[in-house]
Amino acid sequence: MRSGFGTIDVDDLGGAYRLNHFCRRVGLDREFAEAVRRNPASMVSGYGLSLEQAEHLLTGNVAALYLDGVHPVLLARLASAEVVGVDETSYSNAIRSLLDQFTEGEQ
Amino acid sequence: MARIVGGLGVPHTPTFPHLARSDPSGEVATRYGAVASALAEVRPDALVIFSGDHLNTFFLDNWPIFAIHVGEVEGPIDPVPGIDSQQLLTEGGLARAVYRHVVDSGFDPALTLSSSVDHGVAVPLYFLDRYHRLPVVVVHVNGVVGPLPSAIRCWRFGQVVGEAIASYTGPSSRVAVVASGSFSLEVGGPLLLPGHMWGVPAPDWAARVAASLAGRGDDLVALVTPRSLSAAGSVAGETLAWVAMRGATQHLTTRLLDHRKGEGHAFGFWHD
């Protein structure tokens, strides 16, 4: 699990290959993004995620997904594509909430 | 023998082409235009572009530190408003010469014979060579998945690419080397500006990088450390493309370095 911000390291990404793959596909494959918009549960269920990862994705919990190891460059595509209830405003607010958490962790 | 007749660096924000079209005399169009004009003056017949892929062309099933696209290249693979994906004109002979020489020199780049590129290549080309008249060689430098290559290694990599260009005897005799990317930029992470999808976490450091680039870049390698890159944002590793470009163009002098206070990027041009 990630414990900070900055360059995303190989240690941060471990275990989140499928999550990263899902977010990448949302950004590159319009038909896939549209299918996720129409029926997110069905598209997520076919992706081989853990129950916890699937829940984070389906609830659009981008802060949790970041901690799970999704690269932010790929995670941001959920907002660009406006899937799983995430838009740019909600994304920015949610991901910035981690800043306090990381800062507190350093104290 | 070929000669490096220019070096340049620009950001590659995907919305910039749209902004420039909406306001042709605005800041974005003007700043790219200054670099494009300087490039036209040195009359290149090929471009070598250092740019880091954003997990579009390559992914976590096989992620390279360096890669050289030798063969067909199509892009952009990702959405860039106003730019449709197309086959790029490439300089295969030069790409092969670069690949061969960097391997002979101790580097281990990935090789592609058919590949794609993303906005990191498409946006600079939109401004510098909109009608794709110049053949290109695309060189990937990892700037988004740590551990990143060190600055000294990127500098040396750029030097070796420069050597390959200088010893090339194919159809392109006047080559310009391009760096694509920002210095300080957060995309998608906690350092976003409130209400935005981007942030500039280290504007002061970006200014120091720009100042170094405006000079000979002697302290660039000391400035660009894993710690400074990490503090400068999730894609600050794009700075390494500039380091490689200056490694290849160290013999050139600065003509233009346009960095403004608070920004995480710059527009630059070097010539002989």
Percent range for β-strand residues of chain A:
under 5%
Radius of gyration of chain A: 13 Å
Biggest interface: A-B, 34 and 35 residues
Tell me the overall shape of chain B: globular
Radius of gyration of chain B, CA atoms, in whole angstroms: 17 Å
Average pLDDT figure of chain B: 97
Estimated helix fraction of chain B: 25-40%
Secondary structure: number of strands of chain A: 0
Going by helix content, strand content and strand pairing, the class of chain A is mainly alpha
Major β-sheet annotation of chain A? none
Q: Please provide the ordered H/E string of secondary-structure elements of chain B.
A: EHHEEEHEHEHEEEHHHHEE
Number of strands of chain B: 11
In DSSP terms (H or I, runs of 4 or more residues), the helix count of chain A works out at: 8
Q: What proportion of the residues of chain A is helical, as a percent range?
A: over 70%
Biggest sheet overview of chain B: 9 strands, mixed
Q: What's the helix count of chain B?
A: 9
Structural summary, described in words:
- The complex is a heterodimer of chains A (about 110) and B (about 270).
- Chain A is mainly α and about 110 residues long.
- Chain A has helices spanning about 10-15, 15-30, 30-40, 40-45, 50-60, 60-70, 70-80, 90-105.
- The radius of gyration of chain A is 13 Å and the shape is globular.
- The two termini of chain A are about 20 Å apart.
- Chain B has about 270 residues and is α/β, with parallel strands linked by helices.
- Helices cover about 35% and strands about 20% of the residues of chain B.
- The longest helix of chain B has 16 residues, at about 150-165.
Brief summary of the model shown:
Chain A has 107 residues and is mostly helical. Chain A is built from 8 helices and no strands.
